Fold:
Amino acid sequence: MEMMATLCSPWMNKRWQVNCRFPINHLLTRSRRGGLTCPRPLEGVSLLVDLDELKIVEYYDRARVPVPKAEGTEYRRSKQKPPFGPRLNRFAIEQPDGPGFKINGHKISWANWEFHVGFDVRAGPIISLASIYDLEKGTYRQVLYRGFVSELFVPYMDPTEEWYYKTFFDAGEFGFSQSAVPLEPLADCPANAAFIDSYYAREDGTPVKISNAICIFEQHSGSVLWRHTEIAISREVARGELDSEDGHNHWNYDYILDWEFKPSGSIKIGVGLTGILEVKAADYTHTSQIKEEAYGTLLAENTIGVVTDKSSLRKSYWTVESETAKMNQTPKFRSISNPLLSSDDFPQIRSAFTNYNVWVTPYNKSEKWAGGQYIDRSHGDDTLATWSLRNRGIENKDIVLWYTMGFHHVPCQEDFPIMPTLSGGFELRPTNFFESNPVLKTKPPNHVNCTTKP
Structure:
C-alpha cells in the first residue's frame, strides 16, 4: 500500500470527545490513476488521535480484509467507455416574455406568491414570509413565517467495531451551508433559471461566498392545477409552478432541496439523495459466501453497501422476484414501510425527533434545532421530544409544525458505483384557507410556437 495514496477520515463519537481525542478508523485508498476513494476502504484498521498533542495514542489492526478493486467504481462521464445508453433528444424552454418571477435582493415574487430566500450557516437555505395573494380579500396573506431544514440524521446500522457508532447529524455537526456547492447551469438547473449567491462566516469571521448556491426557475412539469370536461362544454385546463432549488455535498452523499410553489396555494418540499454509497470492505465475492449478517448488500466483489437503518432486520418491503443479477442478488422492486430504530438505542435517544412524522409546538425562539443547540455534545436532553414533554398549549398561539421525512435506504446494485437520485417530500396544502378555488380566474399564458431548424 502506498501511504501517499491513503486518506484518513476522522469520525465523531461522543465517548472520544474528551481531551480532544478523535478516532480515525476510516482509511481509504486512491488508485494510481487518481480514481475514487470512497468505494475502496481499508477495513479493520483504526487509530485514536490526540488533537492537543498531535499524535497517535492508540492503534488497532483487528483484521485483514481484501481492499475492493478500483475497477467498476468510476462514475465520471468523461471516463466512461462503450457501450453507451441511448442519447436523449434535446428540448428547449422558451419564455419570449421573459421570466414570470422578479428578484429584488432576496425577495422573490411570482404569480400570486411572494417570499424571501435566506441562507444560514447551519440550516442552509431558508424560505421566510411566504405569502399568497387572496383575490377575494384583495391582499396578501402569510402562509409560512419561516421554513428550513432543522436537522438531518444519518445512522449506519452496522454493530461491528469500526461501524457501531457511525451516526451523523449533518446540519448540527457539520453545518448544512458549509456543504453547499455551486449549482451548474443546464445541469442542476434549466436554461431559464436565475441564480442567487449565498454567504456564511467561517469560525474566524471571514466571509465565504458560494456562487450559484440557489436557483429560481419556472417549470411546466405537466401538473394540472384543475381541469374538467362536460358534454357541450369545451375542456378547461390550467397549469404552472415555481421552483427554488439548491444542492449540498456531505463527503460521499449529495442532497438536493427543492421548494415548489403553486398558484393553488400549495408548497411542495422535495428532497433528493444521490452520490456515492458508504461501503465497507469484506471477504465476500459472491452472495453464496455470506453465512452471517452482513449488515448490508454485496454490491461488487469485496464491497458491502451498509444500510442506514434497521429495515434490513425487519420485513419492511415486499419483493417481486425476476431474473438473476450480476452479483447473484435477487432482483426486486420494493414497496417500503416505516421501521424505526430501537427507542433505547443511544443514537435514537439523541435523534428522538424522528419518533413521529409530525410534531406541533408553540413557538419559542430558543427551540430552533430539533436535535438540540449543541448536537455534537448532546445526550438527548435538549431535543424536540424533550420540549414536547412540557405539554404546553397551542390554542391561539403561534405554532411550529415539525415534519420528519425519512428514507430507509437498503443499498442495491443499482446504487453502485453512484446512486440514482432517490426522492421524497411532502406538501403543505391550503384547507378552508380561501373562500373558493384560488386559481379559478388565473389567466393561462399565451402559447409559443417553436420551430426547430435543422
In short: Residues 279-336 form one domain.
